[in-house]
Amino acid sequence: MYKRLVHVHGVDLSGWIVLAALVGAWQVITLWYRSTFFPPPSLVLNALVDQLLTPAILTDHLLPSLGRVLGGFLGATATGILFGVLIGYWRPVRDALDPIVQFLRSIPAPVVIPMAIMILGIGNAAKTAVIIFGACPPVLLNAIDGTRHVSSLLKDTARVFQRTPLEIVREVVLLAALPQVFAGLRVSLPIALVLMVVSEMVASTNGLGYFILRAQRTFRVPEMYAGIVLLGTLGYFLNAGFMTIERWVLRWHFGYQQKR
User: Fold this and answer.
1) Cβ neighbourhood burial of 93 (10 Å; 0-12, 13-18, 19+)
2) 15-35: string of b/e by CB count within 10 Å (b at 16+)?
3) What is the pLDDT of residues 194-245, one digit of tens each?
4) How far apart, in whole angstroms, are the C-alpha atoms of residue 133 and residue 25?
5) Which one, of 41, 96, 61, lies nearest residue 229 by Cα?
6) Fewest beta carbons within 10 Å, which of 59, 107, 161, 256?
7) Which letter, b or e, does each residue of 139-151 get, where b requires 16 or more Cβ atoms within 10 Å of its Cβ?
8) pLDDT of res. 256
9) Residue ranges of the chain whose pLDDT lies below 70
10) How many angstroms separate the CA atoms of 104 and 136, rounded?
11) In terms of C-beta density within 10 A (0-12 exposed, 13-18 middle, 19 or more buried), how is residue 54 classed?
12) Which residues contact 120 (CB under 8 A, 6 or more apart)?
């Protein structure tokens, strides 16, 4: 009986049922506890449709935020993988850079926002730099660990086939470390989203973080909640897209795991 209720054409709807129940409970609570600062979801939905889902708002706020988070995430990905493989594969590089890595990863990313503003201004460059700084460590550390623990048998086999060191890194080490690298990327993506919002709230003239803070300061409460809902929706679809890419890139890894 339970499976017939939550599965439709093979799709598990249990998560959506729980979400609908929570929204329904929110509606009931707001009808009982009337407060200007805690609007019912019906008002939030109206604000979302009427105020946010318009070409002007999407162009002025959603698209800049999306560009910043994707730019910062891709920058963190490239930086983390490049230096992670270098540090993890070559011991002299690891010995030279490990103190710097440990120092930088101990700095909370939001505290570099004032420095980024002073150096790069309040444009996209500063926000992207902050996102890269905060989202890079999970990718970097997982790339280092994944590279260091690649089986020596795989590397020795590649040397027997007379592969160059660069070919070994590209065709053996990086490929074997990809599952752990993607684990770091999964952690890095929500960090990039958080830092995008924080940087937009501190110094910006557009973006979802700026919109939410401005709505709060002008007491447009339903619009503030609608901005939060839109931000959560953006994060949901970014994560869903990332998981799709991960399943495609690591299809060989997941296939191997299923056979074990």
Assistant:
1) middle
2) eeeeeeeeeeebeeebeeeee
3) 999 999 998 888 899 999 999 999 999 999 999 999 999 999 999 999 999 9
4) 39
5) 41
6) 161
7) bbbbbbbbbeebe
8) 55
9) 1-13, 254-260
10) 10
11) exposed
12) 126, 129
Tokens of 258: 């299923």
| Helical residues (DSSP H) of 90-220, grouped into ranges | 91-105, 113-120, 124-148, 152-160, 165-168, 174-202, 208-217
Dig out the tokens for 252 from the structure. 């060989």
Distance CA 78, CA 70 (A): 12
Structure tokens at 136: 């890079």
37 φ/ψ angles, rounded to the nearest 5 degrees = -90, 5
CB 143 within 8 Å of CB 177: yes
Here the tokens at position 73 are 């995430």
Alpha carbon distance, N-terminus to C-terminus of the chain: 32
243: its two tokens: 């998981």
Which pLDDT does position 14 carry in this prediction? 75
CA atoms of 146 and 253, how far apart (whole Å):
14
Residues 168, 155: contact at Cβ < 8 Å?
Answer: yes
Please, what is the Cα angle at 13 between 12 and 15, to 5 degrees?
105
Q: Which amino acid is at 93?
A: V
CA atoms within 13 Å, Cβ hemisphere of 37: 3
